[in-house]
Amino acid sequence: MSSTDAVLLEEPAPGVRLITLNRPQVRNAMTAEVTAAWTAAIAQVAEDDGVRVLVVTGAGSSFCSGADLSWLDQGASQETTPDRMRERMLPFYRSWLSPRDLPFPVIAAINGPAVGAGLCAALACDLRYAATSARFSAPFIYLGTHGGMAATWLLQESVGVPRARELLYTGREVLPEEALAWGLITGVADDVLDHSLKIASQIATAAPIATRLTKAGLEQSAHGLAASLQWEALAQPVTLATSDVHEGIQAKRERRPPIFTGN
After folding, report:
1. CA-CA distance, 132 to 25, in Å (whole number)?
2. Is the four-CA dihedral 163, 176, 109, 58 of positive or negative sign?
3. Lower CB density within 10 Å: C or N end of the chain?
4. Given this model, what pLDDT does residue 2 score?
5. CA distance 67 to 246
6. Closest of 113, 151, 107 to residue 125, by C-alpha
7. What is the DSSP string of 195-221?
8. 75, 33 in Cβ contact below 8 A?
9. Residue ranges in the chain whose pLDDT is less than 50
10. What are the backbone dihedrals phi and psi of residue 41, each rounded to the nearest 5 degrees, phi first?
């Protein structure tokens, strides 16, 4: 797989891609360089028909320390008026939240602190596994800024309104054990990347059409029971018309692992 220096893109297993944020010296902050490399890597993965699962992690001891706001140090200028900053922030948000739009599952292997926008990037992933050294916080208001990257929505989705309020109002650090109890993460592992890649390899063996439609269905379910039923009444017949469903049934009868082709 191709890579840049700021973000690495690899193929560690069949159907699995791994993106590593590779600026440990700045705790993988979302600098302009890293953001551009991330955007390019996501675009490459999205166009790759062989991808069934994506894993995202950070190099070094941090997952992601959040947005790089050093560009504000230049002081007031035409580039730091609210309208100009909005034009700058929306593409930034959309790029880092793009795992929500990918048609296949995305796993965050959170190897260390995930702070502010870095936490939001993890929350944009479908599954989140954390190392014991991971830490989670949303200290936006203690930096003098409102939360960004859909923090107010993503936190409510993952941990509910009362806990989202606490995290945003106190900015406090949450350790993996508490994060797991809250539902902020899916699991904890000593070697979080190895664990995440094993889960990714397992998911990569599932029927790809059914997996992709399941991800879309989970998004539809946010609109309520009626929307979910309407979606499933379409999506399940689509999968029942594939050759993969016959392979799945036959493999179960023969007590062997199925070999799905995505047809």
Report:
1. 21
2. positive
3. C
4. 47
5. 47
6. 107
7. HHHHHHHHHHTS-HHHHHHHHHHHHHG
8. no
9. 1-2
10. -65, -40
Q: Would residue 73 be called left, alpha or beta, if left means φ above 0 and alpha means ψ between -120 and 50 degrees?
A: alpha
The two three-digit tokens of residue 185, written as one number? 């993460």
Nearest CA among 10, 21, 11, 19 for reference residue 60? 21
Dihedral angle sign, alpha carbons of residues 109, 114, 116, 118: negative
Q: Which of 125, 123, 122, 120 is nearest to 99 (CA)?
A: 125
CATH code of domain 7-204: 3.90.226.10
Instruction: Give yes or no for a contact between 137 and 119, defined as CB atoms under 8 angstroms apart.
Output: yes
This model's pTM is above 0.70: yes
* Angle between the N-to-C axes of helices 82-96 and 32-46, in degrees from 0 to 180, rounded to the nearest 10: 40
- Provide the residue type at 84 as one letter: R
Convert the pLDDT of each residue in 105-121 to its tens digit.
Answer: 999 999 999 999 999 99
Cβ atoms of 155 and 134 within 8 Å: the answer is no
Residues 6+ apart with CB under 8 A from 191: 131
Residue located via tokens 């945003």: 168
pLDDT at position 73 is 66
Both tokens assigned to 14: 């069949």
